[in-house]
Amino acid sequence: MRYVKWVVIVLFWCVVAAFLHYTLPQHDIARITDTYERRVDPGNNSLFWAGASSGDNAAVTGRDVFFVQTRLADDEVMVYRNEDTGWGWPPFFKFDTANVQAEAADLRSTSAAPEWVAIKHYGWRNELFSIYPNLVKVTPVAGPDARIIPWGNIIILTLLVAVAWAIWVRWRRFRRARIDPMLGDMGDNFDSAGGRLRSMFRRS
């Protein structure tokens, strides 16, 4: 039973970590090589696409989506989608997809004359399932060695740890004050009942 308990605990924290890794914003230093738009009909991977943009017909499944092709500072290729998040999840409240696409197009450059940008995004890239991270913001930086300190993530994670710690402390106090004494009384009652049954069998 102890192993089952630890498996459940580990799986729970793995799900929490994956959720936070997907949802919290990340920053890549990259050079934009191209921007384009293509028709997308989400299928089994629809969970990893945003909903219809503000003002669009939500009943239509297929839609045109902006994409931004880049080459990262470590020379790896990365492709981002550029979709509104609107009022949905994650709560980036992004409504300016067209403006972001225009900024990205204006910042395209070649390897001979590179212009480096910090790309704020969330999500994962998976070639097998055609999953793309969603670009949120593009900011010019001095070079490929630029460092972005994720102050927002630091604050959010600190608050989450504080809330988790407060809940755990209160649960421990509640368990010591209420549950443990109740379980102790139940154990005493079972022991007493067992003693009475043994006495009855001896007399019989």
**What do the pLDDT scores average to?**
86
- Main beta sheet strand tally, sense and closure: 5 strands, antiparallel
Helix content: 40-55%
Strand content: 15-25%
Order of helices and strands: HEEEHEEH
Distance between the termini: 38 Å
Keywords: Membrane, Transmembrane, Transmembrane helix
Transmembrane segments: 148-169
InterPro entries: Phage_phiNM3_A0EWY4
Protein name: DUF1523 family protein
Secondary structure layout:
Blueprint: H1 2-23, E1 26-40, E2 63-72, E3 77-82, H2 97-106, E4 116-122, E5 134-140, H3 151-203
Antiparallel strand pairs: 1-2, 1-4, 2-3, 4-5
Keywords for this entry:
204 residues, alpha+beta, OB fold (Dihydrolipoamide Acetyltransferase, E2P), 5-stranded antiparallel β-sheet, 3 helices, 5 strands, elongated, Phage_phiNM3_A0EWY4, transmembrane
Description:
42% of the residues lie in helices and 22% in strands. With 204 residues, the chain is of the alpha+beta class. It folds into 2 domains: 25-148, OB fold (Dihydrolipoamide Acetyltransferase, E2P), CATH 2.40.50; 150-204. Strands 3-2-1-4-5 form a 5-stranded antiparallel sheet.
Structure, briefly:
This is DUF1523 family protein. It contains three helices and five strands; from the N terminus they run H-E-E-E-H-E-E-H. By secondary structure, it is an alpha+beta fold.
